[in-house]
Structure to design on (447 residues):
C-alpha cells in the first residue's frame, strides 16, 4: 500500500513539475488593462488633453536595455543574456489586430470590461535600436536619441518622463506592453521609457533573475542620470513592478550614493514600487540612500500577495511588498517609522477585501484593478498626496503609517476630481483634463 502511495505521490510531483514548466514557458502578450476608475466617469478623461487623436492603435515607447541584442538594428531581438552596454531605441506596440481603429480602442479604454477576452492583446511590432552606450562618452547617435526624448517631452502635456521597470519572468513583448499601456492611460500625455533588464523568462530560474536584477541596477542609475542631464524633463519618475523593484531600489540607491559623493543631483521625482519583490532589509537600506533626493517614494503592497509569498519561500527572506518588520534592526525600524510618518515614504496598502473583483492574492493589482491604476495616474500626473487622492490613513505594525482605499472610493474620487479645479497644487494636466468646467469633453479626443 505504501509503495503504491509513494508511486502516486511521485506521479503527482512529476505532473506538477511538468505543469509548472509548461506554465513558465507560456508568455502571451499583455492584454490591455481594465480602464482606470478615472476613465469611467461621466464627462471627461485624460484623452481630452490631446490636441489631436492618434491615427491608429499603435503606440511608440522609448526603451533602454542591457539585454544582449541580435538581428538588424531596425528590428532588434533582445535575448535573455546580459549585455555590458546600454542599448537605446524605440518600440512600437499595437493594441489588437491590424486594422483596428482608434475609435474602437477609445471605447475599450473608457468603459468597464467584464471579461479578459474582451480586452485586446498588446502586440510588439518592432524594436528599433538607435544607439549603444559602451563607455563614458556618448556617441552622436546616443545624443540624438536623448534629443528625441527631449523633443517628445517638449510636446507632451506632462513635463515629466517616466521610467518603467518590469518584473521577473517577463519577455520583452510583455514588458513593452506594460510600458505602453501605462503611457496609453496617461491619455498619451506622458513620455514613458521602458527599462528592459535581462530576465530568464522562466520562473524556474527566478533566483538567477534576482542576480541579473542587481546587475542591471547600475545601468538604470546611468539612465536616470543621463535623462536628467540631456532632457528638459521637470522630473525623472521611476515606476517599478515586482522584481523590477530590486533593479529600481538598488539603482536609485546608486544615484543617491553618487550625489552624496558630490555628483550633481538628478531631478528624481516620484519613485513608485508596485508589489516590490526586493529583499526587505535591502529595500530599507537602499531607501536611506535615496529618499532625500526623490520627490516622494511610494510602495503599494498587498499583504496576501501569493507571488511574493512564494518568493519569500525561495529566497528565505521577506519581500518589501510583503514585509516582516521583525527582520529589521531597531535602527532600521526607527528609520522606516520616521520615513512613513513625515519623511517622504508613502505605503499604500491594497486590501482586496474592500475592493470589488480584485483577487485576494493579487500580485498584478497595479494594472488589473481600476482603483489602483487610477491612484497611480493621480500620483504620477498630479503629484497629489494620498489624502487628496481619496485614500484613507491607517496605522500598521509597530506604528507605521499606511494609506488604503475606502469602500466608497469611486464616490470619493468623484469629489477629488471636482475639487481639482480649486487645488493650485494639482498639475494643470489633471485639472484641465478631468474637471468638466475646464475640459471640452471626451468627444474632442475622438476622430
Amino acid at each position: 500500500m505504501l509503495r503504491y502511495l509513494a508511486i502516486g505521490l511521485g506521479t503527482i510531483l512529476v505532473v506538477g513539475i511538468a505543469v509548472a514548466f509548461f506554465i513558465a514557458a507560456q508568455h502571451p502578450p499583455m492584454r490591455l488593462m481594465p480602464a482606470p476608475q478615472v476613465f469611467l466617469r461621466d464627462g471627461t478623461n485624460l484623452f481630452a488633453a490631446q490636441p489631436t487623436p492618434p491615427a491608429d492603435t499603435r503606440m511608440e515607447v522609448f526603451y533602454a536595455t542591457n539585454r544582449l541584442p541580435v538581428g538588424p538594428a531596425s528590428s532588434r531581438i533582445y535575448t535573455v543574456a546580459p549585455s555590458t552596454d546600454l542599448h537605446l531605441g524605440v518600440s512600437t506596440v499595437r493594441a489588437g489586430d491590424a486594422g483596428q481603429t482608434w475609435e474602437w480602442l477609445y471605447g475599450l479604454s473608457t468603459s468597464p470590461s467584464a471579461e479578459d477576452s474582451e480586452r485586446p492583446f498588446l502586440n510588439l511590432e518592432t524594436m528599433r535600436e538607435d544607439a549603444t552606450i559602451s563607455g563614458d562618452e556618448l556617441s552622436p547617435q546616443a545624443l540624438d536619441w536623448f534629443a528625441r526624448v527631449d523633443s517628445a517631452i517638449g510636446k507632451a502635456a506632462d513635463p515629466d518622463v517616466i521610467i518603467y521597470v518590469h518584473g521577473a519572468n517577463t519577455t520583452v513583448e510583455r514588458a513593452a506592453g506594460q510600458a505602453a499601456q501605462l503611457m496609453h492611460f496617461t491619455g498619451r500625455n506622458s513620455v514613458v521609457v521602458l527599462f528592459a533588464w535581462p530576465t530568464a523568462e522562466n520562473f524556474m530560474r527566478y533566483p538567477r533573475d534576482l542576480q541579473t536584477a542587481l546587475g542591471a541596477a547600475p545601468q538604470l542609475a546611468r539612465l536616470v542620470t543621463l535623462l536628467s542631464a540631456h532632457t528638459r524633463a521637470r522630473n525623472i519618475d521611476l515606476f517599478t513592478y515586482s522584481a523590477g523593484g530590486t533593479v529600481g531600489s538598488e539603482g536609485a540607491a546608486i544615484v543617491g550614493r553618487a550625489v552624496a559623493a558630490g555628483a550633481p543631483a538628478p531631478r528624481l521625482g516620484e519613485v513608485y514600487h508596485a508589489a516590490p519583490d526586493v529583499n526587505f532589509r535591502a529595500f530599507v537600506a537602499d531607501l536611506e540612500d535615496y529618499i532625500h533626493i526623490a520627490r516622494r517614494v511610494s510602495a503599494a503592497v498587498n499583504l496576501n500577495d501569493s507571488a511574493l509569498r512564494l518568493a519569500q519561500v525561495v529566497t528565505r527572506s521577506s519581500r518589501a511588498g510583503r514585509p516582516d518588520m521583525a527582520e529589521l534592526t531597531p535602527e532600521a525600524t526607527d528609520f522606516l517609522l520616521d520615513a512613513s510618518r513625515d519623511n517622504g515614504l508613502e505605503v499604500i496598502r491594497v486590501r482586496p477585501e474592500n475592493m470589488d473583483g480584485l483577487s485576494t492574492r493579487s500580485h498584478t493589482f497595479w494594472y488589473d484593478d481600476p482603483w489602483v491604476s487610477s491612484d497611480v495616474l493621480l500620483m504620477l500626473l498630479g503629484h497629489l498626496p494620498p489624502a487628496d487622492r481619496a485614500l484613507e490613513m491607517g496605522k500598521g505594525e509597530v506604528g507605521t503609517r499606511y494609506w488604503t482605499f475606502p469602500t466608497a472610493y469611486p464616490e470619493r474620487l468623484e469629489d477629488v476630481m471636482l475639487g481639482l479645479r480649486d487645488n493650485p497644487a494639482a498639475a494643470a494636466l489633471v485639472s484641465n483634463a478631468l474637471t468638466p468646467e475646464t475640459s471640452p469633453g471626451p468627444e474632442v479626443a475622438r476622430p
